Amino acid sequence: MSHLTDSQIQGLADGTLRGPEGLAAREHCDGCAECGLELTLYTSLATGLSALTDPQPPPDFTATVMAAVQVREAHLASRRHTLLAALPAAALAVFAVVGWAFSVQIGHIVDDFATARTVIGVLTPVFAAIRVPLGIGAFVIFAVVLTALSRTLRPVYARAET
Ligand SMILES: [Zn+2]
């Protein structure tokens, strides 16, 4: 009989090689010094491996993880509050821009009617006159909202850095 393969000897060492094949391999190792020595080495290796235990986590592991989770939760909560605070400002900005665009549209409609109706023709300069202030007002509101948004967002980043 030829010498055992490495996988056969490893199977003998860790007990996974069983049955007639395992018996034959065991008999060969009893009569063969070379395979017997290899089996001894693999057996001691398998014993040493099974004696290894999982490394213990540091004693403050759970506390550290929970503290990190709480910091993350607080960060998310503050971001939610910032988004809630930004929503009315964003709605106001949209309202201002839509209002400005709508005022421009009214001006065009009035322009069309003005050719047929002199009464509205009198009003046309009035709409034309207020169109520019309306646009300026909308952009001023937009700028104020953007400034307010940037100020609302800034503390979040400052808190996140600490
Ligand atoms: Zn052998």
Rg calculated over all Cα atoms: 41 Å
Number of strands: 0
Percent of residues in beta strands: under 5%
Molecular shape: rod-shaped
Structural class call reads mainly alpha
Provide the succession of SSEs. Answer: HHHHH
Bound molecules: zinc ion
Q: How helix-rich are the residues, as a percent range?
A: over 70%
Structure description:
- The protein folds into two domains: about 5-50, no CATH class; about 60-160.
- It has five helices and no strands.
- The chain has helices at about 5-15, 20-30, 35-50, 60-115, 120-160.
- The model has no long low-confidence stretch (mean pLDDT about 80).
- The site of zinc ion has 6 residues, from helix 3.
What layout of secondary structure does this protein have?
Layout lengths: L5 H9 L4 H13 L1 H19 L9 H54 L3 H44 L1
Helix pairs in contact: 1-3, 2-3, 4-5
The chain binds zinc ion.
Concise overview:
The protein has five helices and no strands.
Keywords for this entry:
mainly alpha, 2 domains, binds zinc ion, 162 residues
